[in-house]
Design a protein that fits this description.
Radius of gyration: 16 Å
Strand order of the largest sheet: 1-2
Strand content: under 5%
Structural class: mainly alpha
Length: 177
């Protein structure tokens, strides 16, 4: 897929995520992010994995767990819509999901391995899609969205939270190394 999503292909809420991905080769972006996540796991000392920058904020482990939760939700939506299913996909309450998650008990390297495995599966699926599937539109959380937009959301969501890890948690900018 070498076409960025247009504004009518996603809810305005997701414009921020999509704007973080100016590239047109979304499959390359998605593949390259795995190395960035692996570099984060190496760059964060074990004693810092449970750091939260303020009371009530997620730890570094929880941020990575949230990114992985988002990956699951966006990829499921892309799968369902690509297959032509017109059923509306449910919303995603990240706070409720995190309250039920056990990622705070996992070491960062394991969380990154989980993200990498999930991303590999998603890339395998996306790479096999015919051009018309990328343009299919469905409903997610009551708003129209295309498979193309969902792929960009996956990448943009990850970039957004990696940025938060750099800015608020002091995680080194491993993308520029």
């Amino acid at each position: 897929m070498d076409r960025r999503p247009q504004e009518h292909e996603y809810a305005p809420f997701y414009a921020g995520y999509i704007s973080l991905v100016p590239e047109e080769d979304i499959l390359k972006v998605l593949a390259d992010q795995v190395d960035e996540f692996r570099a984060v796991a190496v760059a964060v000392p074990a004693e810092r994995e449970t750091f939260a920058y303020a009371p009530g904020k997620w730890t570094i482990r929880q941020v990575i767990g949230h990114i992985t939760d988002g990956e699951r939700v966006f990829s499921h939506r892309a799968f369902v819509i690509a297959r032509g299913d017109q059923a509306s996909q449910p919303g995603f309450d990240e706070q409720a999901y995190m309250a039920q998650s056990t990622c705070h008990n996992c070491v960062l390297a394991e969380l990154v391995d989980e993200f990498a495995a999930l991303r590999a599966v998603n890339l395998t699926f996306l790479r096999k899609l015919p051009p018309e599937a990328w343009l299919r539109r469905g409903l997610a959380n009551g708003t129209p969205v295309t498979v193309t937009a969902l792929a960009y959301m996956m990448a943009g969501h990850a970039r957004h939270h990696l940025g938060v890890l750099r800015e608020r948690y002091g995680v080194p900018d491993v993308a520029r190394r």
